[in-house]
Amino acid sequence: MAKITLDNLAHSYLPNPGSEDDYALKELNHVWDDGAAYALLGSSGCGKSTLLNIISGLLQPSQGRILFDDRDVTHEPTAARNIAQVFQFPVVYDTMTVRDNLAFPLRNRGRDERYIAERVQEIARMIGMEEMLNRKARGLTADAKQKISLGRGMVRKDVNALLFDEPLTVIDPHMKWELRTQLKKLHHDFGHTMIYVTHDQTEALTFADKVVVMYDGRVVQIGTPEELFERPEHTFVGYFIGSPGMNVIPARIDGNKAYVNGSYVELAQGYGPLNGKVEIGVRPEYARLSQTDGLPVKVRRVEDVGRHKIIRAEFFGHDINIIAGEDERISADMNRVSFDAAHVNVYANDWRVQGEAA
Amino acid sequence: MEKTVNQKAWFLVLPVLLLVAFSAVIPLMTVVNYSVQDTFGNNQFFWAGLEWFREMLSSERMWDALGRQLMFSGIILAIEVPLGIFVALNMPKSGFWASFCLVLMSLPLLIPWNVVGTIWQIFGRVDIGLLGYTLDKLGINYNYTQDTIAAWVTIVVMDVWHWTSLVALLAYAGLKSIPDAYYQAAKIDQASRWKVFRFIELPKMMGVLMIAILLRFMDSFMIYTEPFVVTGGGPGNATTLLSIDLVKMALGQFDLGPAAAFSIMYFLVILLISWVFYTVMTNLDKREG
């Protein structure tokens, strides 16, 4: 178990990267605390897997250093880093039995057979495959194979970190829930540093203490699920987290008012002059539809998703989503929207601007 | 509802039936025909029953040829399969050199059989051949026209030169189909190079290797042109493999009856061995599944 430090790290798949666009992973400084559970969240191709492979040593970074505690491991091979990693698609050794598959990482490290047998039994119980230990791995379902991969990742107790690269993609929903709970429990029991890559926000938010959101090769925000929800630092975070995502509307800011097409929205804080693309962001949860208050909207449709209703509307030519409680009555003459001023964020060129107390 | 009977669909099958009849069934039946008849010339045939088969089965000549043939196929399989795998493992995985290697490897496969024979026939000659001349000057007694061992070494090396590429290319295709994640997982699991081969590469290559082995077995078991061009079956009968012997019997001595019986048994042996191969392989597959 170790603290992992990324120091000025960047990676490009091109031999001679020039502009910043050539980098799959843009310059990054970050410390992964010892024993914490992180989720690495982002859409496909944003550099999540690249970052993971650099940490495990499968990829050499173009620049920067990686430290495990205080040891520089940038140029050390994977084997020397003592890391466990589980991949998106199941990797099993077809010709071996399930038991031998699980024992493989321990045998390769020369652990004694008694300890191995014990450990394999334990892991098999954890992934629910005790009855299948003597079967050949070939011909098992994708589900079962991925459970074996997970098991192989967890079988070593002394790893520096456990990395998961979208491990539950191929697993069916009910098992997904169970395995995620197991992982969480594993983390709780052994306190491994865990990094869990996913593009599924529910998975990220339930698994991790801290969520790292990546966008276009860059880490845009690191925070607790609550922070990501309340104060997205980047419009991408607002849009990516939440269902539906944050409403982002172009606006002009003057002091503590945001002007949208001549009408204005009250802000909780005051802002100085802003340059570039200026927008306000407000989550659908903090917008309210009514007959009297706020700015005019055109309601297009109302979707009842069970726990609440989602109102899809048009606001000065922009799409806007509003969430209303399940019991709230929505009537045809409700055509105004108001925002909870404390939860309206202001963005300049996609990055959040901190206001001053008004 | 009553179905109308319409047998006209048979006509659709007719072209195929005709094609197969002329390309396979009729020639084979001609051979069967010869194998059970005898003639004293003048195109007069009379029934001989299983006489030829009996004669062939007790003929030392055929058993010797079969023995040599099995030894030849055995030796070239034992060399070409491991060598092909070894070459495939060491070929570049991508880029210019990968294409270069692929083209280079394919070259021997594109050369006609009799040309391959001629190349090696000349290559091995002591008077003008590069190989023969060099070996001779080095003081090694090498003469494939007189020495049995030299003759065998020459035709084996020739076959290895000609066909190892096929095994290598098939093995390479098998290797290329292994996803990167397997190698990455093996690194994480700290598997040695040998274990990567034993537990990832070999199992994933098994399918194409089976095809390679089967193809090489059948092909080598029927080999005729190359050894015929190089040694003509000599010295003596040392490299007279089955098909060389068959041609000698049928065209050299004009013993059509025995040769036909020989052909049929030859055909059955290939069929039998291929079938055994196939069954054993597929069963291995199932047992592991």
Biggest β-sheet: strands ordered side by side in the sheet of chain B: 1-2
Assembly type:
heterodimer
Query: Under CATH, the topology of chain B is which?
Result: MetI-like fold
| β-strand number of chain A | 23
Query: Which H/E pattern describes the elements of chain B?
Result: HEEHHHHHHHHHHH
Proportion of β residues of chain B?
Answer: under 5%
On the 0 to 100 scale, the average pLDDT of chain A is 85
Global shape of chain A: globular
Strand content of chain A: 35-45%
The CATH homologous superfamily of chain B: MetI-like
Under CATH at level 1, the class of the largest domain in chain A stands as Alpha Beta
CATH top level label of chain B? Mainly Alpha
CATH homologous superfamily title of the largest domain in chain A: P-loop containing nucleotide triphosphate hydrolases
**Average pLDDT of chain B:** 86
Tally of DSSP β-strands of chain B = 2
**pLDDT under 50 segments of chain A (min length 5)?**
none
The major pleated sheet of chain B works out as:
2 strands, antiparallel
What is the first-to-last residue Cα distance of chain A?
A: 46 Å
Write the layout of secondary structure elements.
The complex is a heterodimer of chains A (358) and B (289).
Chain A: E1 4-11, E2 25-32, E3 37-41, H1 48-56, E4 63-68, E5 71-72, H2 78-81, E6 83-86, H3 98-108, H4 113-127, H5 142-154, E7 161-165, H6 173-190, E8 193-198, H7 201-207, E9 210-215, E10 218-223, H8 225-230, H9 235-240, E11 247-250, E12 252-260, E13 263-271, E14 278-282, E15 287-290, E16 295-296, E17 298-304, E18 308-315, E19 318-325, E20 336-339, E21 344-348, E22 351-353, E23 356-357
Parallel strand pairs in A: 3-8, 3-9, 6-7, 7-8
Antiparallel strand pairs in A: 1-2, 1-4, 4-5, 9-10, 11-14, 12-13, 13-23, 14-21, 15-20, 16-20, 17-18, 18-19, 21-22
Helix pairs in contact in A: 3-4, 3-5, 4-5
Chain B: H1 10-35, E1 37-39, E2 45-47, H2 51-57, H3 60-90, H4 96-110, H5 113-123, H6 130-137, H7 148-176, H8 180-188, H9 193-221, H10 225-230, H11 242-252, H12 256-288
Antiparallel strand pairs in B: 1-2
